Amino acid sequence: MPELPEVLAWLLKAALIYGGLLGTAAGMTLAERKVSAWIQWRIGPNRVGPWGLLQPIADGIKFIFKEEVVPQGANPVLFRLAPMFSAVPAMLAVAVIPFAGDLSFFGHSTTLAIADIEISALYVVAIGGLGVYGVILGGWSSNSKYSLLGGLRASAQMVSYELSLILCILAVVVMAGSLNLSTIVADQAGHVFRWNLWSQPLAFVLFVIATFAETNRHPFDFAECEPELVGGFHTEYSSMKFALFFLGEYCAMVVMACLTTTFFLGGFEVPSWPEAPWWIQLPAFLAKAGIFLFLFLWVRWTLPRFRFDQLMSIGWKVMLPLALANLFATGAVISFF
Amino acid sequence: MFVVKRKELSLRERLFLPEIARALGHSLRAIFKPKITRQYPEEGLPTTEVTRGQPRLVVKEDGAMACVSCGLCEAACPAYAITIDGQETDRFIEREPERFDIDMLRCILCGFCEEACPKDAIFMSDELELADYSREALKYDIEKLKRPKAALQKRIDYVYRINERWRSSSSTS
Questions:
Q1: CA distance linking residue A208 with residue A212, whole number of Å
Q2: Is the pLDDT of residue B171 over 50?
Q3: Which of A39, A299, A303 sits opposite B31 (nearest CB)?
């Protein structure tokens, strides 16, 4: 039976991290529009609240009050389940990410991660792989050719890029000798050059590219490409179900940014200050993750979409061999030197 | 027959990443460029002397209307938007409008009334905004159409200049 402070700390952490995740995802919808506006020399939303800061709330209210439409011939159960399948895995994955090191709470010492489990890297990969079900089921159950094509593309794309993603994570896991994210972070403590970014530059680049494909972001957003598929898997969705798909997508982006930080940028470690208190480590983590969140938006409003065959050939003929070679080289170096 | 020659990409270009970095730099610089958005309701639309906005009636410097309710604009109006009822007055011009309505829902902003007017009494202003909550509110009466001459001066000067040009070109031919 766990002690009361332990339960309290656990509940507090869960509330804090999930509140932060959903808040960041909502903020990202505004940030997306703001960044796109800036890159196009515009101002962006500025009517709701100061600088448009209340825009996500206005959007949320709008989504809730919109009419829900279920198309004729759609599978009613799966059609309603698919948005949840899309949103839930993205939110689950955040549970194991360590946001800060030790902090004491009423004399109870803990880390700022909801669950600090031994196989957390494996858990993240497994849960992340579930995200594609929402997209496929949403595309199939809509009974629409565009949605179906979007869903099929998403599945093909995610399967291809997940391989490279996992191989890049494996290279890092080999370096740290552990599947525990906390251990991987601790392995990068100390000097800034101990970050995996410097020892695994190839894995880092491949990982970042694969995260773009995994989260269906530009330039790899074939699941929802507007000009050919009218919106892809979410063509037939409206109101809150549509919003849930987007919540899932943005949560996945936040999770991927956090994972990139954890695996390659030393997580919450402050350079040359391993014993920094948690209230310094947390902002450090958020700042590092923020860079990647901005990169998601920045790339989206810079690059055009690839062609689907280009996406597949890059995934299978370039990324996968490179990731394999990188993992092989890492293994060889670790075992022989 | 056209033959499209594809440009041979160099290794640097085929690697994508350096070119992507260049593109990212380009869009990052764009973030700091001055914004070109016009904040519309607060910032008005730009107008020039040529702007042919909604027709307005001239109120002269002495406070009297220039209109003598001759009805030429009413006759010239292709959309039948103008309705005039005249009345007598003690002033030298003898007649002035009792009622001068322009149905802005009918008005097509063609400017024929301005051209037809012999007394410089109606001009196309630089007012462009035409939105309201009811149809009735968009039937402008004389009080809504009155503008001091100074407010329309830019357009008046322009019309005079243009008419001068027409006159001189027709005299030579």
A1: 7
A2: no
A3: A39
Question: Are B23 and A38 a contacting pair at CB < 8 A?
Answer: no
Residue A104's H or E segment, with its range, is: strand A102-105
The per-residue pLDDT for A324 is: 92
Rounded CA-CA distance A73/A79 in Å is 10
* Eight-class DSSP state of A316: I
Residue B69's domain comprises 55-128+137-165
- Whether residue B95 is contained in a domain is answered as yes
Q: Count Cβ atoms below 10 Å from residue A24 Cβ, excluding itself.
A: 21
Strands B122-124 and B95-103, sheet pairing: unpaired
Question: To 10 degrees, what angle do helices A201-214 and A278-300 make?
Answer: 70
Position B173 in a domain: no
3 state SS of A110: strand
Where residue B158 sits, what CATH number does that domain have? 3.30.70.3270
Q: Which residue of A has its CA nearest to B32?
A: A38
Instruction: For residue range A224-242, list pLDDT tens digits in order.
Output: 777 777 777 778 888 888 8
Q: Is residue B117 part of a domain?
A: yes
Say which of A41, A205, A301 has its CB closest to residue B36: A41
- Quote the pTM value: 0.80
Minimal Cβ distance to A302: which of B17, B24, B33:
B24
B15 close contact with A: CB closer than 8 A = no
Mean pLDDT of B143-165: 87
Q: How many domains does chain B have?
A: 1
Contact A298 B36 (CB under 8 A): no
Taking only the tens place, the pLDDT of each residue in B68-108 is 888 899 999 999 999 999 888 888 878 888 899 999 999 99
- In chain A (337 residues long), the average pLDDT of successive 10-residue segments reads 76 87 89 90 86 87 88 85 86 85 68 81 87 84 85 85 89 87 82 82 90 83 73 80 86 89 84 78 88 90 84 88 91 86
Q: In the numeric block, which tokens belong to residue A274?
A: 């391993």
Tell which of A47, A51, A303 to mutate to test the B interface (max B CBs under 10 Å): A303
State the nearest Cα–Cα gap between A243 and chain B, in angstroms.
28
Helix (H, G, I), strand (E, B) or coil at B107: coil
Q: Please answer yes or no on whether A41 and B33 come within 8 Å at the CB atom.
A: yes
Encoded amino acid at A123, one letter: Y
Distance CA A63, CA A241 (A): 9
**In a domain? residue B76:** yes
CB A269 within 8 A of CB A99: no
Query: Letter for the amino acid at B1?
Result: M
Closest CA to A8 of A113, A112, A111, A106: A106
And the tokens for B107? 């008005």
Question: What type of residue is A1?
Answer: M
Name residues whose C-beta falls within 8 Å of residue B106's C-beta, 6 or more positions apart in sequence: B79, B80, B81
Among A111, A108, A102, A109, which Cα is nearest to A277's?
A: A102
